[in-house]
Design goal:
- It is globular and about 80 Å long.
- A hairpin with a 2-residue loop joins strand 18 and strand 19.
- By secondary structure, it is α+β, with helices and mostly antiparallel strands.
- The strands form five sheets. It has a seven-stranded antiparallel beta sheet with strand order 6-7-8-11-12-10-13, with helices on one face. A five-stranded mixed beta sheet has the order 3-2-1-4-5, with helices on both faces. Strands 9-14-15-16 form a four-stranded antiparallel beta sheet.
């Protein structure tokens, strides 16, 4: 494999490369012929970059074709147009490109920051209007090569994604050139999909005859009249500016279901008791009831697979294989089949994918919501039933243990009627702030968590980790937050990683303009350490504001902090205060 990264200036360019076969690193600086020679020797290798699907692969092709790199760079970066539209000749350059960027909202520098690595940027501006000096080229090369090594590390930490990508290609006998495609594109190819150009029924909602809702007909009516709501909204949009029109959407339905506030919309349903903390008593059961492969099952049961799929029976076979391998515990063998099942729903909503089918995607989501509501309505017959939270594919409930057989019977009838299958997982404790932040723990101590307050962090998502740890320790082990925070002396545990978005011009720290876009921030007791602020341009005026969730007094450390201990000026009281505030938010809603 070849890991690579391009840097382009007005009069200079370079590419830094690490060849995993030879374990050698090398650079090509303004050397078209040297790079072409390297490419010819390695064009059958898989080339891996970060955001290379949208940038680096096009620069590479342009070098091979002797095109103007600066013009292409500005075409992609400034005009924000796909590189494929720059030149039809790009299709003639063979490149097996794999993009290691899996999350749209996370830059490489952010991921490096989470890992505690050096995130300092080169001091050479990319808009420099002259050739770079020898020293400047060395400086850029240093940081470019650094990013290549960081891309390798990110790739290794998310190698499961690459292996799944490769498994799809191998399992379904696709050519290796498809390594460059997204998994949604692979799914369309595997299912032999054809773009549908004559569909004009995006909001036509027809409900299944297996649905049985009586008490909550308001929700059913909401969806039956959804198309008229959309049509009315489109008329209203014509009366306002384009900017306002973009923000307008069909009003969501807010309603209490089983004494729990719910919100129903085209994209799904969410309902949860707010500020709910409960430990299961000896005569109680807390159950997470989830539907197995809900969306793909409904696509088959209710003929909601994209109408662009030429052979629906192929998808049915893939789903059948996925469930069979799951039952046999063959996780590795199941992965490519599971991926196709999970990807297909999302692909139905992608207008650039051959499986795009807005109506069927909407119906899949609506059916899922209504079938869950259908089940909740039936479960209300259980005297001890308490709904804790619900979403489109499952419910978290509490009942008395003596009522489990009745629950099982109700679910069994619902399964037979709807054609869906449900699994039960049992939990011992629930800590729930709201629908977006909760933690559930089973009898073995295993936990599942969602949301910034309580989620389990990873090397590539490591923001304010000491706060999460302090909150979890408090709820699970009854450890005061002061104990967790005061005993920790590793600097990385206290990091707050912030990224300046494209909406802002630059950041200032202690009133000084910063050239970097990503910062690793820490609370400080030193009053000379000021604020980190973001500067925005509105018309001809500049305005600034403090970056959210950062201390008024902070210090920045963008160097490598792996293994680094805290300095004496770290303000641990700031972290204790934040942890206590979040605990109060969870328990009392901030009151």
């Amino acid at each position: 494999m070849i890991f690579y990264d391009f840097e382009v200036f007005k009069y200079d360019w370079m590419v830094c490369i690490v060849d995993t076969n030879t374990r050698k690193a090398q650079s090509f600086i303004n050397d078209n012929e040297g790079f072409k020679s390297f490419y010819e020797k390695n064009k059958y290798e898989i080339w891996v970059g970060f955001n290379s699907r949208h940038y680096d692969q096009f620069i590479l092709r342009a070098v091979i074709l002797d095109l103007d790199l600066k013009e292409l760079n500005d075409f992609i970066i400034k005009k924000r147009v796909s590189g494929w539209k720059f030149s039809q000749l790009f299709y003639k350059v063979q490149l097996f490109n794999y993009d290691a960027k899996l999350s749209r909202d996370k830059s490489l520098k952010q991921l490096e920051a989470f890992m505690g690595h050096d995130i300092q940027e080169t001091s050479v501006p990319f808009d420099i209007d002259r050739k770079l000096t020898t020293q400047e080229l060395k400086d850029v090369e240093k940081y470019c090569l650094h990013d290549v090594y960081e891309t390798i590390e990110v790739f290794m930490k998310e190698s499961t994604e690459f292996n799944s990508h490769l498994a799809l290609i191998q399992e379904f006998n696709l050519p290796i050139k498809h390594i460059s495609k997204t998994q949604a594109q692979l799914a369309a190819i595997i299912l032999d999909s054809k773009k549908q150009h004559d569909l004009d029924d995006a909001y036509d909602i027809i409900l299944p005859d297996t649905l049985d809702i009586n008490k909550y007909k308001t929700v059913v009516d909401y969806y039956l009249t959804y198309k008229s709501k959309v049509e009315k909204l489109e008329v209203e949009k014509l009366k306002v500016s384009k900017e306002k029109a973009k923000k307008m959407e069909v009003k969501k339905l807010k309603i209490d279901i089983s004494d729990v506030p719910h919100v129903f919309a085209a994209g799904g349903v969410h309902g949860a008791k707010k500020n709910y903390v409960h430990t299961c008593q000896s005569d109680e059961l807390i159950i997470m009831a989830d539907v197995d492969q809900l969306y793909p099952t409904m696509m088959i049961e209710y003929d909601l697979l994209s109408r662009g799929v030429s052979h629906p029976e192929k998808f049915e076979k893939i789903l059948e294989t996925s469930l069979k391998l799951k039952a046999e515990g063959r996780k590795k063998e199941r992965e490519p089949y599971k991926r196709i099942c999970n990807i297909t729903y999302g692909a139905e909503g992608d207008k650039f994918n051959h499986m795009f089918d807005a109506r069927n995607r909407l119906l899949v989501c609506v059916y899922g919501q209504l079938f869950m509501l259908d089940l909740i309505e039936k479960l209300e017959a259980i005297s001890s039933f308490e709904l804790i939270q619900s979403n489109t594919d499952g419910v978290l409930i509490k009942i008395k243990e003596k009522d489990f057989d009745l629950l099982d019977d109700i679910v069994f009838e619902w399964e037979n009627r709807t054609g869906l299958h449900m699994s039960f997982d049992f939990y011992q404790k629930v800590i729930q702030k709201d629908v977006n932040n909760y933690l559930i723990i089973d009898n073995a101590g295993n936990r599942k968590s969602i949301g910034s307050y309580l989620k389990q962090l990873s090397d590539l998502d490591y923001d304010l980790p000491i706060i999460n740890k302090a909150i979890v320790d408090f709820f699970i082990h009854d450890i005061p937050v002061e104990n967790t925070i005061m005993r920790c002396n590793n600097l990385i545990e206290f990091q707050k990683v912030v990224k300046l978005t494209s909406k802002f011009e630059y950041a200032t720290y202690n009133r000084k303009k910063q050239t970097e876009k990503v910062f690793r921030v820490f609370a400080s007791t030193d009053q000379d350490d000021g604020e980190l602020r973001k500067v925005k341009k509105e018309g001809n005026k500049l305005s600034s504001g403090k970056i959210g969730n950062t201390p008024v007094n902070c210090f920045i450390d963008n160097g490598d902090i792996t293994g680094k201990k805290i300095p004496s000026k770290l303000d641990k009281k700031w972290y204790i205060k934040m942890a206590k505030k979040r605990i109060n938010d969870i328990v009392r809603g901030g009151k």
